[in-house]
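Standup notes
- DV: blocked on the single-chain target, sequence here:
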Amino acid sequence: MTAITHVHNYTVRCPHYQENQKPADWHNHIEVNHSCEIALNRITKWHNNAGSKLFEIDGITIRKADKEEAYFAMQSSRLKHDGHGLVTFKVFLDNCCQDVSVNEVMEYLIKDYQQRITKID
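- DV (later): unblocked, structure below
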């Protein structure tokens, strides 16, 4: 059995405000961290509240939370040199962001994650 050697947690908060005269855009509000604690908290929460399945991208199932405007996904990946990765994704949308496509956001995040894990030696 392989231990989890790399953890990536993505959070996107669709902004309802404008910063420094820049247009409000979800691209400016992507957080990536490597906290095992956050990943485990998300997995525990999502296990108890599976939400509704929306769609799949590259084998990753994206779900909508039942009680909030949040979308989430997670996946584990085998890496080089017997490593193992765990990734979680969480996207918050508020009322101002009705034009944002969850599919577009998730495609962007998944592509970013795939690029990151290919660089792991």
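- Follow-up: The first strand starts at residue 6 and ends at 13.
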